[in-house]
Amino acid sequence: MSRMPSPEKTSVPHDRRSVVCPTRRDEVAAAGSELIGGPVGRRARLGTVDLTPVRVVALVAIGMFALGMVQKLPCYNWAWFRGAASQYTHACYSDIPHLFVGRGFSDGLIPYFDRFPGDMQYLEYPVLTGLFMQVAAWLTPGGGDLQYREQMYWMVNAGMLLVCAAVIAVCVARTHRRRPWDALLVALAPAFALNATINWDLLAIALTAAAVLMWSRGRALAFGVLLGLATAAKLYPFLLLGPLLVLCWRAGKWRPFAVALLGSAGAWLAVNLPVMLLAPEGWKKFYVFSQERNIDFGSFWLVLTQRADLDLQIETVNTTASVLMLLVCAGIAALALTAPRRPRFAQLAFLVVAAFILTNKVYSPQYVLWLIPLAALARPRWRSFLVWQACEVAYFLGIWMYLVYVTTDSKQGLPPDGYHFAIVLHLVGTLYLCALVVRDVLRPELDAVRQDGSDDPSGGVLDGAPDVFVVGSAARTRRAEGQEPAPMDGEHPGVVSRETA
């Protein structure tokens, strides 16, 4: 009798015949497919040489990005240049043209090294994002009046961000090899199209998506380097190291985690150290600004202070928000170590980034972009995804209508009570999706990704690996299934800390 392969060696074939079709498994996907001919049949060919799922996803993402650019057309033509209220009324605001002038790019100033007039003085973005902005400024055609140059700067940035959007879609499509069509959740997400060109977040998101793809292929060093670069573009990607730590702890995979951690630190230092040494005042502006920034739009802190008429000190808010974040992260770690089956990496990554967004003192509308790729990997279910997206689109409209109210003498737009409702809707929508992800972790049989026999397609070395450390209910489940003997006298009854026999 031949020996059965170990869990680490077991793999699921990844040919086209094994590709999971959402229209066969998801009611909403099946209903939506009626627009293009209905669910795929049993004898259908899943892709051709020229039109593979990844290429379809990339083309759809590019098309939706283009629609988002069209939505900004009123601002591009005139509203950015004729007062604040017009760009809010048309819901087409973007930081990009305003910061072209406001941060000195139009005058040829170099970020972090050159001081510009005003209270900010230095660019308040991480170094890699500043480089992205500077490259776009170099590519912006000269000549013409200032309005023309602002338009061209936005257009150049939009082109560069379009590349980032395509990279995100392709990376998500390739992370779960048997489920490339799940990336349509990213490509078709309405909040993705609406927010893509508000700011420069897509650069960090593209690097993060590429990092997750590398981890899914077992390339820990490449994951670490890309995650370090992503953190050099935006702060949130470093949070993914937390889920990786507890999952590697549970699986006993310390070496890949150490490689990923060192790769992240090295890449971050390689980008930041030159600016840190040569322009320390400009370099630290982002970090100082993040600490000193007051309670701002979109956060539950804003609702709390305005509804209760509180005057909270910024130090108190920073400390309380940090404590809340740490408590939630501790809860996520406990979930990872006690779940009956080791959670998937994408599930915990989504929960940690969502926790950061929910507890933060500011929620800019483009922050939803951070969660969309992780949500598609964590819970590829169209119904819950679209419910969440509806809440985010409502918030997108709510913040602009509230800004119309506060910037016009006639007080047209959405009053504070209405804006508070939009904030609560965003919070509830995000919590709703988090709750479903937690339910999938506690009841793995409900996890859409695992229903085809997969373990953790985005987990890399964790995919199919046995547990070596679990606590509480997970340990009891393992013993009940015969995976681990009952504890001997003197052993802790809720802890397993050795390899499965």
Automatic annotation (TrEMBL):
The topology of this chain with respect to the membrane is: Multi-pass membrane protein
Membrane spanning segments where? 52-70, 122-140, 152-173, 185-215, 221-247, 259-279, 319-338, 345-365, 385-406, 418-438
Cross-referenced InterPro entries: GT87, UCP010361
**Recorded superkingdom:** Bacteria
The molecule here is called DUF2029 domain-containing protein
Q: Name one GO molecular function term.
A: hexosyltransferase activity
Keyword list (alphabetical) reads: Cell membrane, Membrane, Transferase, Transmembrane, Transmembrane helix
Q: Where in the cell is it found?
A: Cell membrane
Describe the family membership recorded for this protein in Swiss-Prot or TrEMBL.
Belongs to the glycosyltransferase 87 family.
Q: Where is this region: Disordered?
A: 477-501
Supply the source organism for this entry: Streptomyces kanasensis
Cite a GO CC annotation.
Answer: plasma membrane
